[in-house]
Amino acid sequence: MKTVILSVILILTSFFSQGQNLIGYAEKEIQKFMKENRQDMGKEIVSNSKFSYLKYSDSEDTQTLLFFLDSDSICKSIKLICDIRVKTEKVKEFNSIYKPYGENKWIDTHNGKNYLIEIRNDQWSYNIIIEPVK
Fold it and tell me: Rounded to an integer, what distance in angstroms lies between the CA atom of residue 38 and that of residue 121?
């Protein structure tokens, strides 16, 4: 179990510490990035008539990554759903990388734009949301 938790932490660290929040990327660019940099996560086929998104999950089902796309297939926000057991480590990491913006909130500046990174708790998991500051 400790191995699974450690691997999840390393995976999350590699995704966020690379500074790749991928907001503003086109669908094909996201797919290329994920194929080249995140072989640990497989793309899932999803269908939704209300909105468009890309979905990736790891083989242990400990994390799911969603890229929400606008009508032009450009990423407008990201949601990472993770096992609640690794939240403390993620908060420590975010505190060391990003500017705090309140409890469980940080600001990431990328390409001259500000993005809000927020951790939201669920019963068995937590969600990391990345979206442009409004």
Answer: 25
**Count of CA atoms in the C-beta half-sphere (13 A) of 119:** 21
The tokens for 80 are 């990472």
Dig out the tokens for 15 from the structure: 């995704």
Q: Please say whether the beta carbons of 77 and 129 come within 8 A.
A: yes
The structure's pTM equals: 0.79
What are 63-103's pLDDT values in tens digits? Answer: 899 999 999 999 999 999 998 888 888 899 899 999 999 99
CB-based contact 53:71 (threshold 8 Å):
no
Q: Who's near 41: CB < 8 A, 6+ residues apart? A: 11, 34, 56, 57, 58, 63, 65
Residue of 36, 73, 38, 72 lying closest to 53 (CA atoms): 73
- Tell me what percent of the chain is helix, strand and coil, each rounded to the nearest 5: 30, 40, 30
